[in-house]
Design goal:
about 50 residues, two-stranded parallel ribbon, 2 helices, about 45% helix
Length: about 50
């Protein structure tokens, strides 16, 4: 039986500026170690609001 696990990493932040700053180095780390990078698009579009 073959089991495949997807590994994702994202920047934990509540503002788009910090996500962009930290996302730059995190994407390099993800590529190096075989992780997928997940951008927090909802923060970019609507800010830190609940229910979006």
């Amino acid at each position: 039986m073959l089991t495949f696990f997807c590994r994702y990493a994202c920047v934990c932040s509540k503002d788009s500026e910090t996500i962009r700053e930290n996302g730059r180095w995190l994407t390099d780390v993800c590529q190096k170690h075989g992780f997928n990078y997940s951008h927090r698009v909802h923060i970019e579009l609507w800010g830190d609001r609940r229910g979006v």
